[in-house]
Amino acid sequence: MNISFNGIIEFVAVAETHGFSAAARKLGVNVSHISRKVAALEKELGVSLLARSTRTVRLTDAGQAYFARCQELVYGLQEANETVLDKQVELSGVLKVSAAGEFAEQHIAPLLIEFGQLHPKLTIEMDFNSQMVNFVDDAFDFSIRYGPMKDSSLIARKLTNRSLVAAASERYLEANGTPAHPKDLTSHQCLMTNNSTWFFDNQGKPLEVKLDPRWRSNSVRSVVLACERGLGIAYLPRSSFGNALKGGSVVPVLEPFWNREIATWIVYANRNFLPAKARLAINFLLEKFEHWQE
Fold first, then answer.
1. Can you list the positions of beta strands (E) in the chain?
2. Largest Cα–Cα distance in the chain?
3. TM spans, by residue (predicted)?
4. CA–CA separation, 126 and 133 (whole Å)
5. Global pTM value
6. Which range in 52-66, 87-101, 186-200 is most confidently predicted, on average pLDDT?
7. How many Å apart are CA 167 and CA 220, to the nearest integer?
């Protein structure tokens, strides 16, 4: 029996991205090339692998079974090639990373720039967006996320632990008093990012306080600025305050209740094979943060 891999890579790309155009972008070819290859594969097998309509592409029953086996073959072949070539290959293509917040801008971006300098043929795209990403449809290699991980279908590797700090300006505290307990915050003006619930540590036990924000923004810098200007109390990772804490424009409050073990994660899709560009970038970040302290 003659075994041909002709069209299999294109078929797997269509199945993973749910479309011919997306598959073409992923492989760096035109749509007509993808269409010809998949059609030739279907003709060779004598079955329809994909059900096409004007708007969607879905796998047939035969296509679903074929895809499950072919995906393993394609990933296995890629991994075998990259295992041999890891030490000598020049990384190329696009590494697409999703991140959000001041931490990513101050610490992740500079390290990925350094990684890019080590691999001149690699293009790196960073998308600063706090929303969770679709790793298949949006073609992200990995993301940087902060806090508890809720999606068990993803792989999360801890990058580092960070401490939350509650702080306010002296002007605000003089006018409104200093909270003695996290529950006192319900009568204070609070400055928030995306989460309306703040998580504290009460003698080793978790304490959640749900609050109505006085100021809300997905820009950490604007929250810190509002805190410095006396608008209210902010509760952020220590590094997010930057010079505001060091320079004394804001002062700590509720220190005994701070949550000091909030993890920052590298998150990626649960898949059998991780491309060399992603695997090496992830390992590079993990190595750089091995002894990092906030």
1. 50-52, 57-59, 93-99, 122-128, 142-146, 154-162, 164-168, 190-192, 197-202, 205-210, 213-216, 233-237, 251-253, 262-269
2. 84
3. none
4. 13
5. 0.64
6. 186-200
7. 14
- What does the buried/exposed string (b/e) look like for 16-47 if buried means 16 or more CB atoms within 10 Å of the residue's CB? bbebbebbbbbbeeeeeebbebbeebbeeeee
pLDDT tens digits for 22-49?
Answer: 889 888 899 999 999 999 999 999 999 9
Domains detected in the chain: 8-85 (1.10.10.10), 93-159+263-288 (3.40.190.10), 164-260 (3.40.190.290)
Cβ-based neighbours of 194, under 8 Å, separated by 6 or more = 130, 218
Helix axes 61-85, 8-17, angle to 10 degrees: 110
CB 95 within 8 A of CB 122: yes
